[in-house]
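User: For documentation purposes, I need each entry recorded in a consistent format: the amino acid sequence on its own, followed directly by the corresponding C-alpha cells. There are two entries in this batch. Please keep commentary to a minimum and don't merge the entries.

Assistant: Recorded as requested. Entry 1:
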Amino acid sequence: MPREATLATERRPLTVAVIGATGVVGQETLSVLSDRSFPVGTLRPMASGRSAGQRVVHRGKEWTIEALPDAASKNDEGSGAKLAAAFAGCDVVLLAVSKELALRVAPAAAAAGAIVVDNSSAFRMDPATPLVIPEVNEDALAPCRAALARGEGCIVANPNCSTILALVAVTPIHRLARVKRMVVATYQAASGAGLEAMRELESQARSFAKGDGHEAWDTRYFGRPYLFNVFSHDSAMGADGMNEEERKLVLETRRIWRDDTVGVSATCVRVPVLRAHSEAINLTLERAVTLEEVRAALVAAPGVCVLDDPAKNQFPEPRLASGRDETLVGRLRMDASQPEGHGVSLFLAGDQLRKGAALNAVQIAECLLPSIRR
C-alpha cells in the first residue's frame, strides 16, 4: 500500500492545481495526493476545454474540472501575465501536459508564486531548473527553497520515468562504489505512452480473444501490432542512432549525478505490458565490492524493495510493481565478465505512472512545503 506523507498536521490547507487532470498521469497525481494525505484545501483540476465541467472526486469531495485559460494556447504578448493571473493564489501546480504547453504554463504559474513541478521534458536540461529525484538528489532543491523563502515561486523538473526508476535502484550502489558505466535495456509498458496506447493494447487483446487476425486489430496509435510484439521505443530517432528515450537516460543521469564522465548506454523498447516498466542494468564500478555489500545498500535504500529469491524464482515483475510506490529490484549478481568485484547486474520493475511520474512529482512538492511563506 502507498505510504502516507509525514506532513505536519497543523499546516494550513493549500490550493493545489493539477494541470492535465484527465490524462493518465493527471489521474494518478490526484490518486497520489489522496493516498499521501497531501494538505489540499482547494483543488483546481484543469484540462482542455473538452473536459471542462466534468467532475472529479478527491477524498470524498467533488471538484469541477476547469478549462485551461485561453492564454495557455497562445504565445502572444501579454499571455504570460494572463496566465499568471489565472494561477494567483495557487500554492502548488503539478503539470502533466505536453512540453509545448508546459513551456508557457510553468513560468506563469511560478510567476504567481507557486511551487511548479513539471512532468514534461520542457525544463529537464535547463541549468536553472532543478531536475530532482528526492531519494537521489533532494539537495538540488536548495535554489527553490531560497526562492520560496523570498515569497517567490519556482519550477522543478520531474525526470523521465526510465531515469527515475533506474537511479532509485542504482544510486545506492553508486554511493557504495562510484558507477563508471551503466548499460540499460528498458522494457516499457503502454502506460508510458498514455491512455490511447493503453486502450490500443487492451483492444488488441480483446480482438485476439475473439479470434480476429492481427490485420483486423486497431493499430492507429503505434502503427503495428502491440500485442505479442516488442519494438523500438516510439520516440524520435536522432542522427546518431539513439532515440529520444535513450538520450534522456544518458543526459538526465549525468545531470542528476552531477557527473558528465559517467558512461551510459541505453536501449529502450516497448513491450506489451499495460502498466509498469522494467529495466535490465549492468554496472561497471570504480572499485571492487561484494554482492553482500550491494544487497545491504539496496535493502537500506529509500524507495527500493529488494525482491530477489533465486530458490523460488521470485524476482521483479511489472504485475507486482503496478500500483506500488517502491521500485522492485532483484536478479542481483556479480558480472564475471568484468574484473572481480567491479561488475554488477540487476533487474528492476517500477510503476511508471506512480514513481515514474505522479509520485515523484508529489514527493518533490512535499520536500518544498516547509519553505512556503504565505
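Entry 2:
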Amino acid sequence: MRLFLLIALLSAAPASQTPKGWQLVVLGIAQDGGMPHAGCTKSPCADARAGKRPAEKVSCVGLMNRELGLAYIIDATPDFPAQLHALTGGQAPDGIFLTHAHIGHYTGLMYLGKEVMAAKSVPVYGTERMTEFLKRNGPWSLLVDNRYIELRTLTPDHAVALPGGLRITPMLVPHRDEFTDTVGFLIEGPRAKVLFIPDIDKWEKWSRRVRDVADGVDYLLLDGTFGSMAELPNRNIADVPHPLMSETRKQVKGTRAKLWFIHVNHSNPALVDGKDVAREGMTFEL
C-alpha cells in the first residue's frame, strides 16, 4: 500500500486506533535519481514508464506524532511535493533535517520558495558547512533572505531534543563532500532507536564501528545503493563509492538491530525484490 493511502486510512481511523507517540515513516527508497531514472531505458525503469510497476521515490523518511500534531522530514528530495503530501497532506513540516548537499537530499527545498509554497520560516537543520552553503549560494540563499526557511546549525554528536521524547543526533560519515560534509542520524524515541545513514563511502572509513552502533539501536536504515561492482558497465563504480549490500550485511550480522536498506540505485536488482530493502509506507514505532 502506498503511503498516501496509509495516511488517509490512519487519519480516518477512530481515536482508539490512532497510532500513539512518534513513528518513523519511509517516504522513499531510491537513490538520488529515483526510479524510473533519467537516461535508463532498461528494466525496471522501462517497466515503470509503461505502468507495469510502481515508480520509486527518492530516499527519505518522515517523523510524525499525531497526538502532538508534529511532523519532521529527513532530507528534501526532488520528490518533496509528493512526500510532503504523504506526511502532512501538503502542509509545511515542523522542520527539515538535511544529511548533505547532493541532488537527492536537499534540492527539494526549492518548493518552499515564492514560486510554490512561500513557506513561513520552516526550520531547516544542517551542519555548519551545510547551512553556510545554503546562505552563500543561490537560489538557496533567497530562501534564507526571504525567510521561507530558518537555518538551524547542527553540531555533530549533539542531540536535538524534540517534543514527546524524540532525540535526533547527527553523526559525521565519510562521503564525497564536494560542497558540505555528510551526516547520518541517530533517531531515538521512547520506544525504539533507529540509525539512518543513506550515504557513506565505506564502513571502514568511518570513525566508528558500525556494528557497535548497531548493537545500541533497534533498526538500521542504511545505504543500499549497489549490490554488485558490475552494476554500472559504462561508468567506474569506484567514482561513486558506496558499500555493497553484502559488505553491510557482513558488518552488522549478529547485532541486535534489524537491517533495512534504503537509497537503492535503479541498477540494483534488490530495488525490485530485495527482502531486506525498506519499502515506501513502512512505519517504525519510536
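Summary note for entry 2:
The longest strand covers residues 22-28.
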